[in-house]
Amino acid sequence: MEKMKYDVVVVGGRVGGSTASLFASKKGLDVLIIEKNQEIGVPVQCAEATSSSTFKTLEMKPSSKYVCNEIKGADVYAPDGSHGHLEGGYAEGFILERKLFDKHLAIESAKAGTDILVKTTVKDLIRKKEGVRGVVAKHMDHTLEIEAELVIAADGIESQVAQMAGLNTRQTPHSLCSCAQYEMVGVSCDPHYLQFYFGQKIAPGGYVWVFPKGDGVANVGVGVRSDTTSAYSFLRKFTSQMNATPVELNIGGVPVHGPVDKTYTDGLMVVGDAAGQVEPFTGGGIHVTVLCARIAGEVAAEAIEKGKTSENFLKRYETRWKKEVGGDLKQSLKYRRIMDRLTDEEMNILAKFLKKQDLESISKMSMLGFVRDYPQFLKLLKEIL
Ligand SMILES: Cc1cc2nc3c(=O)[nH]c(=O)nc-3n(C[C@H](O)[C@H](O)[C@H](O)COP(=O)(O)OP(=O)(O)OC[C@H]3O[C@@H](n4cnc5c(N)ncnc54)[C@H](O)[C@@H]3O)c2cc1C
C-alpha cells in the first residue's frame, strides 16, 4: 500500500472539485484532487448553460477556449404553443463546452499547485477520533492511503464520500429530475436564445430544452420527474420531429429537492451536486456549485491555518454559502413545487398572463386582476410572496 500526505484531499475533479482545489491551492495549501474517470470533464452530464456570475466567482473572463456561445434571452413555450419571450436579465448567459471548461479549471488548479490523480476512486475514509483524516483510494490495482487534515467531497449526485462520514446526502428518485440529452447537428434555431417547452405530454414534471451551441449545433434535452428510461423515450419522441442528427447522448439526474440538511462534519465539507446545491426550479447547478466550492476552498485554508478542522469551525462554510445563495435556493424550490402542481391548462393561462407583462416589474394591480379572473392561482401566489 502506498502512503501519501496532503493538507486537503478533494474527491471529484469536475466543476465543484476543481474550483474548491483552485481556491485552496491559491491560499497555499497542499491539495490533491482524486478523480475516478480517466479524463476530467467527461462524460458530460449537462446542458452547459451558465450565467456571468460563474465567471465572476471564478475571477475569470469568459473565453472562447471553453465558451461556445453567448445567450441574450429565452423563448418559453406553454403546452398549447403560446409563446413568451424573455430578453436579458436572468435569461442572459453563456453556453459552455463543459468538457473543455472543467478541464480548464483543473488545469488552472494544477497551475496553482494542486496535484491530480485521475482514474483513481475513493473507496473509504480514514477516520480518527477527531474526525475524517484522509481517504483510501484505488488506482488501477494499487491501494493508496492518503492522509489529510480535511476532505472536500465534490463527488456529484452519486456521492458516497459524505455518506461515509455520516452525512445524509442520499438522493431518492423523488428528489431527482431524470434527464436525457442529445447534442445534435442541424438544429434550426436562433443561435442566441434558449428554448424551453413545457407540458405533461412532452416532459411530465419538467421541461424540454434546446440550448444552441452555434453553427446549427444544440443541446436538446428532456428532464422529467420519473425514471431515466422515460426521460430517454420523451427525448426520442421530441427529437423525432426534428431534422437533426445526434452526435452525443448524455443521461443523468439533477437534484431538485434543495440542499441537503448538513454540509459539514468533523474534517469534511461537501459541495456541489453532492450537497444538492442546485436551483430546484431550473436545474442549474454550475453557478451555485462554483460559489459554494470557492467558499469551501477558502474555509479549508482558514481551518488549516488555525489548526481547527472540527465541525464547530467548519460550520462557517455552511453559514457563508447559505448567506450567499440559501435564500435563492429556497425561493427556487417554492417555484418548482408550484410548477409540480400546475396542470397544462393552468400553464397556458399563466403563460398568456406573463406574455403581457414586463417580467422585471409585474405590478400588484395586474396580479390582483389576474387572481380575480383566475382565483385558483391565489393560493399559489401566496406561497411565492
Ligand atoms: C442532463 C443535465 C443537464 C444539466 N444542465 C445544466 C445547465 O445547463 N446548467 C447548469 O448550471 N447546470 C446544469 N446541470 C447541473 C450541473 O451539471 C451540475 O450541477 C454540476 O455539474 C455539478 O458539479 P459537481 O462538480 O458538483 O459534480 P459532478 O459534475 O457530478 O462531478 C463529480 C465528479 O466526481 C467524480 N467522482 C464521483 N465519485 C468519486 C469517487 N468515489 N472517487 C473519485 N471521483 C469520484 C465523478 O467522476 C465526477 O467527475 C445539468 C445536469 C444534468 C444531469
Automatic annotation (TrEMBL):
This is Digeranylgeranylglycerophospholipid reductase. Is involved in the reduction of 2,3-digeranylgeranylglycerophospholipids (unsaturated archaeols) into 2,3-diphytanylglycerophospholipids (saturated archaeols) in the biosynthesis of archaeal membrane lipids. Catalyzes the formation of archaetidic acid (2,3-di-O-phytanyl-sn-glyceryl phosphate) from 2,3-di-O-geranylgeranylglyceryl phosphate (DGGGP) via the hydrogenation of each double bond of the isoprenoid chains. It comes from the Archaea. Its cofactor is FAD. FAD binds at G16, E35, C46, A47, A49, R98, V122, D273, G285, I286. One of its GO terms (molecular function) is oxidoreductase activity, acting on the CH-CH group of donors, NAD or NADP as acceptor. Its EC number is 1.3.-.-. GO terms for cellular component: membrane. InterPro entries: DGGGPL_reductase, FAD/NAD-bd_sf, Geranylgeranyl_Rdtase_fam, Geranylgeranyl_reductase, GGR_cat. Residues 177-242 form the Digeranylgeranylglycerophospholipid reductase catalytic domain. The keyword Protein transport does not apply. It is an enzyme of class 1 (oxidoreductase). One of its GO terms (biological process) is glycerophospholipid biosynthetic process. The lineage of its organism: Archaea, Methanobacteriati, Methanobacteriota, Methanomada group, Methanobacteria. Binds 1 FAD per subunit. Reduction reaction proceeds via syn addition of hydrogen for double bonds. Transmembrane segments: none annotated. It catalyses: CDP-2,3-bis-O-(geranylgeranyl)-sn-glycerol + 8 AH2 = CDP-2,3-bis-O-(phytanyl)-sn-glycerol + 8 A; 2,3-bis-O-(phytanyl)-sn-glycerol 1-phosphate + 8 A = 2,3-bis-O-(geranylgeranyl)-sn-glycerol 1-phosphate + 8 AH2; archaetidylserine + 8 AH2 = 2,3-bis-O-phytanyl-sn-glycero-3-phospho-L-serine + 8 A; a 2,3-bis-O-phytanyl-sn-glycerol 1-phospholipid + 8 A = a 2,3-bis-O-(geranylgeranyl)-sn-glycerol 1-phospholipid + 8 AH2.
